[in-house]
Amino acid sequence: MKFYWLVLGILAVWRITHLFNAEDGPWDLLARFRRWMGAGFWGKLLDCFYCLSVWVAVPFAWLLGSDWKERLLLWPALSAGAILLERLTGKEEPPPAVYFEEPENPHVLREESTDAARESPPSNPRESDGESPPG
Which of 74, 80, 108, 135 is the most buried (most CB within 10 A)? Predict the structure, then answer.
């Protein structure tokens, strides 16, 4: 088998897998198809790029391989090539922001959280307004 056919096989497996996994298609046909498949085996298969590439690679390995040994080795090789292409071309989304809020204590009206809040108030009330005392 020529290297040329291996590269074409990898590109074809990646393209078809990406089409079924991540694209909506014209008139949202593929998006509707994925929704129609639901949350069962076939729906989960279409949601997982890695899983889908394994099964898309089967017919390409059968067509490109000359004997059963070559076909058997081409099957995971084509899938792996498609996965590498997906990792190279895929957009990495930033992780979601982490938000944490402590639960409120219903028996407390006001909770002081810092040491600065526990300090005594200024002796002159005008100093707290930012005004200087008359002088």
Answer: 74
